[in-house]
């Protein structure tokens, strides 16, 4: 690989159509294969070393609590320090590897993941509780991130040819995007492959080395990615895999003087804690740590009386209950103008009641939530909701040997209610009435978050007003507020939704690099 022109333009990985019997059978076969390999001991990766520890994270299938996905070795501070020193040492060689060679590892990884697409999806179905389509979309997005960021580093590497600086007589001026150092990658459990892969590959293709601390509920799928990168020949020590406690290992590494950046996706509370730790300067630290954070949302869909009401209702239900509402982009609020309120509410209720809850490996539309903590928290919010609105459907645990909750809809919720304000991260939708579209937008904006939003209308003047006044990082018109595509919908939010990192966009790799200007007198 010598020239970027030899690389085909980026295109999104297509989704698999599971209504076709051959695709359904292929996924069932992959699930069977993955199930036969469950229960293994999974090591830490520190450079070339595979470290097995007595203290382990036991990964459980949230849809079948009797099924152990794997026993994942757990790092302590001593092992985290060893991994840090390995990453620091490896950075000295990795940063000198040409961008085209770093990109080549990613292109190989994307090709291999594409070949094993159903395998990756099957493990997610079992470990995180996604149905076939949700897991397939996650794997497709992971492939997209790898492909997109590989091309991006090649673009940045050629910036002086494609976007040269202003010429000054007697000078040769060049801008180079160089890596910044060792980073700590802390991905979430809700997109346990896509976001983990995107955060990690963006950092390493930019020339950095990383310490990857996966979510404790989904460490097995993260390890499958790490093993893939090892298989394609990525040098040992570029990605160091260190599952562990956030309080013990996460805080230790965030505070470490050799940590140059932290890339985090998760809750507002944890993100703010990391921000506070990262802002402190440790002894021996010679830089301001960089934080790339995506911290959730309380996203909403606004519907006015000129909208296509069937399309709006379908999008509300898809946005609220896709992957059981466990998305930072989930549309957990619907704000509907009074003139069409009753009609939309009835449509949403009817569509929600069609969602059957069951085992993810059998591809039910709705599955479990991730763990006991989430299960208890969501059920508590449902009890709060019973005092804040009219329960239309759901409102109880669902049957099954897992963390199953019925998709739940509350109507007639006041704008200031807790279930309208607080991120629940589960299958709970709050519906609020507005007198007109202006009030609906005001209610939408009345939140500390600002990640995604949707506006349904056929009035172009109103749409223009919504585009200008609805305050969020990703605003969609006449479509659902979930399902951002790499390259098409750069993703990141405002306010307490994070640092607006715009993952999957043309600015993202700049967060993992620093621009060095060199000016040579001729």
From TrEMBL:
Reactions it catalyzes: L-glutamate 5-semialdehyde + NAD(+) + H2O = L-glutamate + NADH + 2 H(+)
Name by which UniProt lists this protein: L-glutamate gamma-semialdehyde dehydrogenase
Pathway(s) the chain acts in: Amino-acid degradation; L-proline degradation into L-glutamate; L-glutamate from L-proline: step 2/2
Molecular function per GO: L-glutamate gamma-semialdehyde dehydrogenase activity
Pfam families according to UniProt: Aldedh (PF00171)
Known EC number: 1.2.1.88
Superkingdom of origin organism: Bacteria
SUPFAM superfamilies xref list: ALDH-like
Domain Aldehyde dehydrogenase per the UniProt entry, residue ranges: 56-516
Keywords: NAD, Oxidoreductase
Top-level taxonomy: Bacteria, Bacillati, Bacillota, Bacilli, Bacillales
Enzyme class of the recorded protein, top EC level: oxidoreductase
Entry-linked InterPro entries: Ald_DH/histidinol_DH, Ald_DH_C, Ald_DH_CS_CYS, Ald_DH_N, Aldehyde_DH_dom, Proline_metab_enzyme, RocA
């Amino acid at each position: 690989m010598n020239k970027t022109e030899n690389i085909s333009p980026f295109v999104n990985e297509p989704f698999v159509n599971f209504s076709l019997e051959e695709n359904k059978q292929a996924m069932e076969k992959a699930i069977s294969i993955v199930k036969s390999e469950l229960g293994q001991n999974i090591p830490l990766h520190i450079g070339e070393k595979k470290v097995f520890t007595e203290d382990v994270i036991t990964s459980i299938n949230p849809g079948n609590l009797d099924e152990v996905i794997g026993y994942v070795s757990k790092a302590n501070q001593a092992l985290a320090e060893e991994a840090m020193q390995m990453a620091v040492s490896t950075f000295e060689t990795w940063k000198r590897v040409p961008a085209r060679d770093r990109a080549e590892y990613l292109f190989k990884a994307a090709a291999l993941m594409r070949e094993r697409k159903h395998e990756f999806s099957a493990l997610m179905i079992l470990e995180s509780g996604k149905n076939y389509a949700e897991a397939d979309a996650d794997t497709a997005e992971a492939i997209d991130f790898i492909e997109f960021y590989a091309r991006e580093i090649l673009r940045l590497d050629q910036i002086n040819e494609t976007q040269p600086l202003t010429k000054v007589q007697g000078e040769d001026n060049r801008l180079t995007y160089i890596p910044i150092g060792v980073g700590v990658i802390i991905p979430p459990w809700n997109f346990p492959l896509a976001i983990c892969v995107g955060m990690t590959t963006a950092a390493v293709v930019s020339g950095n080395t990383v310490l990857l601390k996966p979510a404790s509920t989904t460490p097995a799928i993260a390890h499958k990615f790490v093993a893939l990168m090892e298989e394609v020949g990525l040098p040992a020590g570029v990605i160091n895999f260190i599952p562990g406690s956030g309080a013990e290992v996460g805080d230790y590494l965030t505070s470490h003087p050799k940590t140059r950046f932290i890339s985090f996706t998760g809750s507002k509370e944890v993100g703010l804690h990391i921000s506070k730790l990262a802002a402190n300067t440790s002894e021996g630290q010679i830089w301001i740590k960089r934080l790339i954070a995506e911290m959730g949302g309380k996203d909403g869909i606004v519907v006015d009386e000129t909208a296509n009401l069937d399309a709006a209702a379908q999008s509300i239900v898809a946005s609220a209950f896709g992957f059981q509402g466990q998305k930072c982009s989930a549309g957990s609020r619907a704000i509907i103008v009074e003139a069409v309120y009753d009609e939309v509410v009835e449509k949403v209720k009817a569509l929600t009641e069609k969602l059957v809850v069951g085992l993810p490996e059998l591809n039910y539309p709705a599955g479990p939530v991730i763990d006991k903590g989430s299960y208890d928290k969501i059920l508590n919010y449902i009890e709060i909701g019973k005092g804040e609105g009219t329960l239309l459907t759901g409102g109880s645990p669902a049957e099954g040997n897992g963390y199953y909750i019925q998709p739940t809809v509350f109507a007639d919720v006041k704008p200031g209610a807790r279930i309208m304000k607080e991120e629940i991260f589960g299958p709970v939708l709050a519906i609020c009435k507005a007198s007109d579209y202006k009030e609906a937008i005001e209610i939408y904006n009345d939140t500390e978050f600002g990640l995604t939003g949707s506006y349904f209308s056929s009035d172009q003047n109103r749409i223009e007003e919504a585009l200008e006044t609805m305050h969020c990082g990703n605003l969609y018109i006449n479509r659902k507020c979930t399902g951002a595509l790499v390259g098409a919908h750069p993703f990141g939010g405002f306010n307490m939704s994070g640092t607006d990192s715009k993952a999957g966009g043309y600015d993202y790799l700049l967060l993992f690099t620093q621009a060095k200007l060199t000016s040579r007198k001729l």
